[in-house]
Amino acid sequence: MQNPQADRRMIEDYALIGNARSAALIHRKGTIEWLCMPRFDSEALMASLLGSSENGCWKLCASDPEARYSRRYLPDTMVLETTIETDTGCAVVLDFMPPPAEGRRLFELVRIIKGVHGYIDLETAMKIRCGYGLYEPWHEQREGAIYAISGHDALRLSCSIDLGKLNGQTSAQFRLSAGQTHHATLEWYPSHTTPELPRDPFALLRHTIATGREWSDRCIYEGRYQEIVRRSLQTLKALTYEPTGGIVAAPTTSLPEMPGGVRNWDYRYCWIRDAAWTIHALSISGFQEEASDWRWWLMRATAGMPDHLSIMYGLHGERRLVEFELDHLTGYENSRPVRIGNGAHDQLQLDVYGSLLGAFDAARRDGLPDMDKVWPLQRAVANRLLSLWQEPDSGLWEVRGGVRHFTYSKMMCWFAFDRTIASAQDFGLTGEIEAWITARDAIHAEVCEKGYDSASNSFVQYYGADRVDASLLQISLLGFLPASDPRVKGTVARIERDLLINGFVYRYLTDSEEADGLPGGEGAFLACSFWLCDAWIMEGKVNEARALFERLLNCTNDLGLLAEEYEPTLKRQLGNFPQAFSHFALINTAHMLNQGVIHASARRQKRGYPV
């Protein structure tokens, strides 16, 4: 595990807490710097992560600047425990967001602090700034609590210590002795309603711990790497929007892919490309109910005319995710612009057809119920792809430099037809099977002709390109060609040569703006490094795969969390955090290493969907 530099904020300095509705990020020294309520994509109420303390935060720390902090999650929960030590004593802070009660429109964030030994002087200060840190709400103190209201947002802060209001913040200084306990609960509710009575914070703590551990006990993964796999599964659970079953890519926006750069995107939405991998990771780990919920979210979100299939959707399946910039925020480490919404939502990305139809096939083979209801949509999407697969697109990585015939996109079109044909043939379903077979075979032939460069003995990023793309590591995982094929081995070898830099895999080279339409560089994409592990396992290089996998585990922060990317020179995480893509890639690779290469290959050939 890394030891972040003490004199600067690092992305890995943060911890996630959440309630499967919304989330908060807490710095290792006890300050909440990002909080969205009541949804992941709500306007942040604390946004100092992307600006300064004036944009909203909640500090809870020792008065002594030399205090020592350590932290962990309580085992098999998302309850964060931070230990604060000074020369005079020790205290423990428990931060969590309890599951909402059925029918309540009130959502809580709870902080409990306990004196362990001696005494410790502490201070707390809260600044609520609505509208992503722009507006100070109206405050009122009544009924033993502090209320803050702005537009739709209303908050109630209940605390066991006296809080004062000064210069736009609520603050206090206090001494905590061994055996003493204080608590504070911040509750969000719609401003036009009367809030329900507060719930007991200690009962909420017990309930949150119990429900977290009950959920984790359903995990069937055993063997090596069990602790980190279970933590990654807990993270995916925390990134799930429980009312609909959708899973957000990350709970944050605009954390940069390179400090000071412009590659800053809003990831608080649900990507179709994540579908097959996520369903597989959840299902093989014992979480069939969550896999089923994600399947139903996919079906609802993509329902309608297949012409209108989008690459991503909002938490409830919203299609319009208009992108705009927040000029009042300086950005994380001056990385601007800060973006809300995602302009890639209206791109054509052909790989999503493979992700969607592969996910439905995976769900059917994993025995998820009511799959007969999915077949009409599956069939309609495949029929639309018959006339669409020959079009250029923006590719898996949502490039903004123009459309091309991306090789991986074509492979995923092949995968879409291959899995739809397999579903029809293996489960006795009716459809245009001959047309699908014709299209599948035509795509395979075209990719092998136009997407392959004989001079370098490798497939290339797009037709006619002179470079590779890390997505091509999935060729054998998709079943497009076996790992033993010389062309696959050549592609993996070229990716090792061109994209495996300082021990980590980059998505593609960003040595010119022509590569993706954007200036500047980015870190190594963590999921791509896990894909190299998978490709090596498929090739029989298990020892090499295990060594890389364990190097990747060393990139997690002290809590086992991963962002989107890692910069090996700077030795730090980059991009939105924590990232679902990184965590389900970790889970799937751990399963492959745990099962062994022969079993993993047989499973892949039988089921035919990516890990």
Give an overview of the whole structure.
- The protein is an alpha+beta fold.
- It folds into 2 domains: 11-215, Distorted Sandwich (Beta-galactosidase, Chain A, domain 5), CATH 2.70.98.50; 218-607, Glycosyltransferase, CATH 1.50.10.
- The chain contains 15 helices and 28 strands.
- The strands form 8 sheets. Strands 5, 6, 7, 8, 9, 10, 11, 12, 13, 14 and 15 form an 11-stranded antiparallel beta sheet that branches. A 4-stranded antiparallel beta sheet has the order 1-2-3-4. A 3-stranded antiparallel beta sheet has the order 26-27-28.
Short summary of the structure?
With 611 residues, this protein is α+β, with helices and mostly antiparallel strands. The protein is built from 15 helices and 28 strands.
Task: Report Rg.
Answer: 24 Å
**What percent of residues are in strands?**
15-25%
Largest sheet: 11 strands, antiparallel
Shape: globular
Total domain units: 2
Structural class: alpha+beta
The poorly predicted ranges are 1-7, 597-611
The third-level CATH topology of the largest domain is Glycosyltransferase
Mean pLDDT: 92
Question: What is the count of helical runs?
Answer: 15
